[in-house]
Amino acid sequence: MKLAHQINLAFSIALVLLLSITAVVIHFVLLNHFVGTQKAELRTISSAMSATMIQGTASKANFETELHALPAIMPSVGTASVEAILSDETGKVLSTTSNMSSISINSNTQFVADQTSDLQNIWNGTDARYITEVNVTPIGTLTLLTPMSAVTTIEQALFKRLLIVFGAAGAFMLLFGLFITKKLIQPLMKLQQELKKVKERHFSDVRLIKAGGEIGAVAQSVYDMAGELNRFNHVQKQFFQNASHELKTPLMSISGYAEGIKDGIFEGEGIDKGLDIIMSESGRLKKLVTEMTLLAKLDSEEDIFRTSEISLDDLVVETIERMNPLLMKKGLTLHVSYDDCEPLTVRADRDKLLQALLNVVSNATRYANQHIYIHASVKDDQVLLSVSDDGPGISEDLLPYLFHRFVKGKDGESGLGLAISRAIVERSGGLITAGNRKDGGAVITMGFPTLSPT
Predict the structure, then answer these.
(1) Following DSSP, what letter does each residue of 178-217 receive, concatenated?
(2) CB count, 10 Å around CB of 213?
(3) Is the dihedral of CA 454, 345, 349, 302 positive or negative?
(4) 287 sits in which H/E element
(5) Average pLDDT over the chain, rounded to whole?
(6) What percent of the chain has pLDDT over 70?
(7) Could you tell me if 130 and 147 are in contact, meaning their C-beta atoms sit under 8 angstroms apart?
(8) How many C-beta atoms surround the C-beta of residue 100 within 10 A?
(9) Please, which residues have CB within 8 angstroms of residue 292's CB and are 6 or more apart in sequence?
């Protein structure tokens, strides 16, 4: 069953139950209200009749007259549905109204009950067919009663009208619920269509579904996910294109010189030069394949990264030692500075993080004029390690894509060094960013979360 049908069915059942319970409660409330109103009316009539009889009992003659005048008193003080019985202390009936329908009187003035009622039950209030009011007067006991059917008839008439109102309100609520359900389900149905596009890898065709609440948040997540997948797919295609181009160039050089030497095109020094180029391109090809393999492993394999607590101070010292020959060859000076803080410690794979730092410093040596700066500090619960130079800086067009694969500057090599550094830093739980210094030159910053004290 579709979700829309499930919601509509659940809403309909809940609505029917609610209206049914409400109708039952209203039925009993109305019935109790009308019974109470009728009893109050009987008390009023009984008081009026008692007062009338008291005024007429000043003499014995008036007393006898009052006994026979009881039927005549009723129309002036009550309604036609009210019946009255006047009895003495022994229960003997002295007078009654003329419209008694369910109880009759024999010649001995004793009540003859019909199939469902007798006088004692009426006095006790146990006869459910009547609402009674018993009042003691100087003449005797005045009993007023009205048929329950008169009350239930009024209650049922009003209750039927309420049922019509409830039915109309229920129908309106049902239609309104269907409308609301459609409004709620429609974004989900549209979202399902967009997810089908994701399944079919049509990431660029995915549209943002406008909706509110949690559905809107899910729709935004799907849209963002499709965008990320589209960018990832584009990067993957670009990666293979660039990889094939980078691999093809040294392979063509190796193949060309190898065929030339084999065919005797090169002689003497030409052969030595050709072999040198073959060796150089082979080394470049090996380095490229190694970097591509490392980058793929960093993206997919978990066990390649073994983290431990390492000292950044020691890591910087080892980086300087490894880069010193290249620095001396290019005549560059490396400056190291630390903020006034405790020895900096981060959690990462030491060998991988060392390689990331070497890649960043090596990149700085290509563009620095005379100086390279390494600065370590702690800021906002992060350990920051920045590498800057006094070179021309990074162009604004290149800056957003600097850490992408095969993105190279003017004197870049494979275009994978900074991409590897980013993968290593992110696997360490950190973040690497790039920018330009105010005084000129590029700056690359690696940030790592600080270790909480044990």
Answers:
(1) HHHHHHHHHHHHHHHHHHHHHHTT-GGG--PPP--HHHHH
(2) 9
(3) positive
(4) helix 269-300
(5) 77
(6) 78
(7) yes
(8) 15
(9) 243, 416
Which residue type, as a one-letter code, is found at position 214?
Answer: E
Count of Cβ atoms closer than 10 Å to residue 258 Cβ? 13
Residue 2 CB partners (closer than 8 Å, separation 6+): none
CA angle 186, 189, 190 (to 5 degrees): 90
State the DSSP code for 372.
E
Contact in structure between 194 and 226 (CB atoms under 8 Å): yes
Among 198, 194, 175, which Cα is nearest to 186's? 194
What is the rounded distance in angstroms from the CA atom of residue 75 to the CA atom of residue 83? 10
pLDDT at 239: 67
What pLDDT shows up at residue 21? Answer: 87
Question: Amino acid letter at 154?
Answer: I
Closest of 396, 417, 397 to residue 405, by C-alpha: 417
SS3 content of the chain, % helix, strand, coil (to 5): 60, 15, 25
CA distance 429 to 450: 10
The answer to whether the CB of 188 falls within 8 A of the CB of 3 is: yes
- Helix runs in 56-147, H state only: 60-77, 119-124
Q: Cα separation of 320 and 334, whole Å?
A: 8
Residue linked to tokens 């109309």: 168
Locus of tokens 């209200």? 33
Question: Any idea which residue has 């009011």 for tokens?
Answer: 133
**Could you give the angle at the alpha carbon of 87 between the alpha carbons of 81 and 90, nearest 5°?**
145
Report yes or no: 443 and 435 within 8 Å, Cβ to Cβ. Answer: yes
* pLDDT of 60 above 80: no
Q: What angle do CA 166, 168, 173 make, to 5 degrees?
A: 90
